[in-house]
Amino acid sequence: MIHKALIGIGSNLDLPAENCLKAISILSKSKEVRVASQSSLYESEPIGNPDQPWFVNAAVEIQTNLNPEELLQYLLNIENQLGRIRKEKWGPRIIDLDILDYEGQIINSSTLTLPHPEMAQRRFVLEPLSEIAGATIHPLKNKTIADLLKEQPNFPIVKKYSPHK
Questions:
Q1: Is residue 165 part of a domain?
Q2: Among the options 34, 51, 84, 147, which is catalytic?
Q3: Is 96 a catalytic residue?
Q4: Is 147 in the active site?
């Protein structure tokens, strides 16, 4: 059976835009996952620890035959393949792949929480997500992604990515 999931992507080390695009490329070449749509890239101010480079973020809608736990493991394997080392919460990272939503399922296990617990309060997640899945209903908030985005303050800054010269 094919399932729909929404994945958040972020990076702020080395070449963040290229890291995000490389992760999307790996996803799109896999047998287990098909990328159905992809957002633009966005630049965002770091949260938690402001003393780090800005992030580049994106979102993709995928179709997969993997269940949520298998998908999580699959994404962690891609992070490892791209060199992710987990040092500090909200710290700099080469790549971050998060399951934001999996067909509206609500899961609270020791390894996975769905929908992503912080997505409704994060402009850097909602901005790219609303571009590809704005009508998707958040299963706990019972609001669309587009409506959740409208409720966000304009800070921290999130803007469309443009390559720096």
A1: no
A2: 84
A3: yes
A4: no
Domain that holds residue 56: 3-160
Q: Which alpha helices (DSSP H) does 8-144 contain, by range?
A: 16-28, 68-81, 123-133
From 96, 101, 122, 123, active-site residue: 96
Backbone phi and psi for residue 74, each to the nearest 5 degrees, phi listed first: -60, -45
For residues 112 and 67, is the Cβ–Cβ distance under 8 A? Answer: no
Catalytic residue among 14, 93, 122, 123: 93
The tens digit of pLDDT for each residue in 52-78 reads 999 999 999 999 999 999 999 999 999
pLDDT at 116: 97
For the question of residue 122 being annotated catalytic, the response is no
In tens, the pLDDT along 75-88 reads 999 999 999 887 77
Catalytic residue list contains 101: no
Domain count, the chain: 1
Instruction: Kindly state whether residue 27 falls inside one of the protein's structural domains.
Output: yes
The CATH number for 42's domain is: 3.30.70.560
